[in-house]
Amino acid sequence: MNLANKITLARIFLVPIMMFFLLVNVDYFPPIRINEFYITYNQIIAALIFIIAASTDGLDGYIARKRKMVTNLGKLLDPLADKLLVAAVLISLVEMGKCDAWIAVVIISREFAVTGLRQVALLEGSVVAASTWGKWKTAIQITAIIAMLLNNFPFAFIGFPFDVVATWAAALITVYSGIDYFVKNKKVLRLS
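^ CDP-diacylglycerol--glycerol-3-phosphate 3-phosphatidyltransferase, sequence as received from the core. Prediction below:
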């Protein structure tokens, strides 16, 4: 259990804490209201937890590579932690009425499909490396999720639906990057 794996495990343990603040009403203070905009303290705390958890995604991999601590456990846990974080927050946002269910299903389905492709590739002795589109997908998903968690702050003040635009962009890039993975790795599917 090295430092990189501990960071990955911490990301996994932050998931239920984040969900607690999103789904359990423990607001002891009234929401913050500025004109038509409002946000609860629960949402702010959940957003901060999500930002911390998401920011550790690259950190654990960097530490593992830099210190030559790459382990099979880390290879298993890191993508699992990413999928758990994104799936949990999207399901919570659907429950809260902030995200359309079909968008959550598309994003989560793509994550499972690419994970399955990676597992098949591993069984065949090859590795499906992260693509540029996959990295863009992650960045845009995180941006869209943060915008939804923060009730479109600060764009709500100018009437621009950034959260909606970012969510649609995340869905489209998620689908495109999933197709890209399968097209570029079709030989893996032929071998299995």
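Strands lie at 32-34, 37-39.
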